């Protein structure tokens, strides 16, 4: 008899706890706050998360489907996390992909992540972190972007060139200039243009450039351009003295 009584008492407390936990309005989500987003607007994110309103706080354990929909729609987002702000507010923290480069195409500036994802245009964003550290690329044809993703070969080519330059001098300001026939020039240290031409034999071109920079005794502002387009040669055009 005593054992039966204890069993019934335990079941009573369990039922009471479940009722209070799942039925209490105090434990239901009444507000949703989107934080951390810059490139993705809050309004559509709130619509994706609206089904959580009025649900019990334990429903935050089952948000994978919502996260999946958002990530598929907005590749700018790297990660989504959910945090309960007691007692009724759900904070949804958005971590966007960091900026990597600014692509200037048809006089419009587009911000791109390191994986090639188009984040947004500069004109529509006012919270860009450390603009001065971004790579600047001009002259890329718009068709290099498909479904808001930069062609992987272009991403890898720019990364490879950057790595070569960093191998002999760190943190050098560089701009990349592609012309109409897709030949590449870089503006090195904001002062001298280096004409690389096509991306074939880029390794050898940088070896030649490295040798020249080691022996060069002229200030960069006295060099008009360095041309590496002729195999195994470095052609230097010096600026005319005024």
Number of helices: 5
**Which segments are poorly predicted (pLDDT under 50) over 5 or more consecutive residues?**
none
What is the first-to-last residue Cα distance? 110 Å
Let me know the CATH homologous superfamily of the largest domain: Cell division protein FtsQ/DivIB
Count of distinct structural domains: 2
- Summarize the helix and strand pattern as letters: HEHHEEEEEEEEHEEEHEE
Helices and strands: which structural class? alpha/beta
Largest sheet geometry: 9 strands, mixed
**Fold-level CATH name of the largest domain:** Rossmann fold
Mean pLDDT: 80
From the spread of the alpha carbons, the general shape counts as: elongated
Main sheet strand line-up: 6-5-4-7-10-11-12-13-14
Strand content: 25-35%
CATH architecture descriptor name of the largest domain: 3-Layer(aba) Sandwich
Describe the overall structure.
The protein has 242 residues and is of the alpha/beta class. It has two domains: 27-96, Ubiquitin-like (UB roll) (Roll), CATH 3.10.20.310; 99-238, Rossmann fold. It contains five helices and 14 strands. The protein has helices spanning 2-23, 42-49, 64-73, 152-166, 202-215; strands at 31-35, 77-85, 89-96, 99-105, 108-113, 118-121, 135-138, 145-146, 149-150, 174-178, 184-188, 192-197, 223-227, 235-238. Strands 6-5-4-7-10-11-12-13-14 form a nine-stranded mixed sheet, with helices on one face. Strands 1-3-2 form a three-stranded mixed sheet, covered by helices on one side. A two-stranded antiparallel sheet has the order 8-9. Strand 12 (192-197), helix 5 (202-215) and strand 13 form a beta-alpha-beta unit. The protein is elongated, with a radius of gyration of 28 Å. The termini are far apart.
